[in-house]
């Protein structure tokens, strides 16, 4: 059906992102193809690698005992998305493919028309950075930074077959073309590496304690041998058009024991790649400063400090 209808078609699982966008005329498909009743998209497989169906609702991910015990940051991220009503409808795959957001884009049609629209939809310039050639809308997925830090892969299925790619290859640093997923492809599975030895954490900054999208997300994953960090990953959310890894900060952890002094140095290093713009809630200087605070909190939580 996707191949038949091409750019006129869109897929929908929970609809918590697509339907509001359609109401605001940000997305205008002529054909909407439902995925919700495909049982193949709702399975959780066991094995050396754990396969999680993209059609699982966020509520199911958050309440899964298996995922809470093995990949706790993923369960936490799913639980922090929006409200109970939307988590019951919204899916893991939908949150990974969430449309990028911006104060100038996520408005009613009449509001956007009054400012002559923006580059992401119907306009010609980015109203956040008028001199830029690209859109700076923000990646606001809660689960994407976590899965990036965990080293997950995703399976994409389309008319030309299927392919499995690292989740880092799914995202592009462009507010319009933010996914590398091809138009005829459906995200069907998330493949998680073995969890043995790994600890993970996710913290989310937002104005209210529920409903709001993140204005900063911090995902940390550590593979421990005793008290020593053997592998580490830190990924920031809602500071760019894709999740933003902080490899220099993570490298400081490898081979070290977690201490207050080390955590402060790592938090300072993670602060540098965080470059939010003035295109979402709260001021961007504050969001950048909070990167240091949230990375430190996440590491202290994992260290039990």
Annotate the secondary structure layout.
Layout lengths: L1 H4 L3 E4 L5 H6 L7 E4 L9 E2 L4 E4 L4 H6 L1 H6 L1 H9 L3 H6 L2 H5 L12 H6 L28 H8 L2 E6 L2 E6 L19 E7 L5 E8 L10 E10 L2 E10 L6 E2 L1 H5 L8 H12 L12 H20 L2
Parallel strand pairs: 1-2
Antiparallel strand pairs: 3-4, 4-7, 5-6, 5-7, 8-9, 9-10, 10-11
Helix pairs in contact: 11-12
Overall description:
It is a single chain. A hairpin with a 4-residue loop joins strand 3 (44-45) and strand 4. The strands form 3 sheets. The protein has a 5-stranded antiparallel β-sheet with strand order 3-4-7-5-6, covered by helices on one side. The protein has a 4-stranded antiparallel β-sheet with strand order 8-9-10-11, with helices on both faces. It has a two-stranded parallel ribbon with strand order 1-2. The model has no long low-confidence stretch (mean pLDDT 96). The chain starts with a helix and ends with a helix. Helix 11 runs antiparallel to helix 12. With 305 residues, it is an alpha+beta fold. The chain is globular, with a radius of gyration of 19 Å. It is built from 12 helices and 11 strands.
Helix and strand sequence: HEHEEEHHHHHHHEEEEEEEHHH
What kind of assembly state do the chains in view correspond to? single chain
Rg from Cα: 19 Å
Sheet with most strands: strand arrangement: 3-4-7-5-6
Global shape = globular
Keywords:
4-stranded antiparallel sheet, 11 strands, 12 helices, 5-stranded antiparallel sheet, 305 residues, alpha+beta
